[in-house]
Amino acid sequence: MKKITFSLTLMITTYFTSAQNPKIGKIISNDPSLSTLLNINDQLEVLGEGFEWSEGPVWVKNGNYLLFSDVPTNIIYKWKESEKIIEFLKPSGYTGIMPYSNEPGSNGLTISNDGKYLIACEHGDRRITKMPLAGKGGKFTLADNWDGKRFNSPNDVVEAKSGDIYFTDPPYGLPDFVDDKSREIEYFGVYRISPQGKVTLIIKDLVRPNGVALSPDHNTLYVAQSDVKAYIMSYPIKSDGSVGEGKLLFDASYLNQQGLKGAPDGLKVDEKGNIFTTGPGGIIVLNPQGKLLGRIETGAATANLAWGEDGSTLFITADMYLLKLKTKTKGANF
Fold it and tell me: In this structure, is residue 80 part of a structural domain?
């Protein structure tokens, strides 16, 4: 069963019945251990389609629903089992009146440690915000500048158990991208917001930092780079919340050279420390040491993913699609 709704000029299709939902993609195994994480013969279930560029999925445990961004249309959508996909928040990332850029909306989303707030990366308004999920009280800014200079376009975000918030700041939401005249920071950096609200630049040598995630013990920060140098980097987190020297965990560039399209973007970690990262061809599955275990080919440019439901389901945003895949593992600290 499906439901078709309209948003602006988009035709959004919601599929309700799992048995009838379209299936796409396939799983490619590079190591026998992948079968302990995924059912190798499974395909991805299409939950909805018709978005311009779906991004930033996050599961809301208190309510059992998924939120995700459609960046170009400046909307956060809500998906819940057996219900149609609806608008949750509009505008989601740009509150101006005049047209801004091709990607003005929210991007990466996360839920605060106490489960009460939605934390969002906002491209157009160039800030990190916090908003109560219960709808009581408005949105407020956590950070919109470093050293008095406005961010470029915050992209992905994660909160550590310490209360530190880590996020990336590439140029993708700026009207003229790298050459935009409104750029105030020379770096495309990774930042930390302390529990007291202090903003610190912690990584400044990546060309295009994008997705960000934490190891199960929150002692390691992972950063994906969307560039010709398609890297997954790991950084030890120090006791003060800063990070040590980065290490190249996985270089996905060779997959591009094999003809697979896409670049590392969003990433998530399971309870054993395995890393599920978007990249060339869809999703790349790595063990904690960075060994390639296999790939989930989505058939579309893939932006991000999130653990949801009982913690063993992956929700995936891939271009025009919202997808779902059952796994044999569980999200870290779910």
Answer: yes
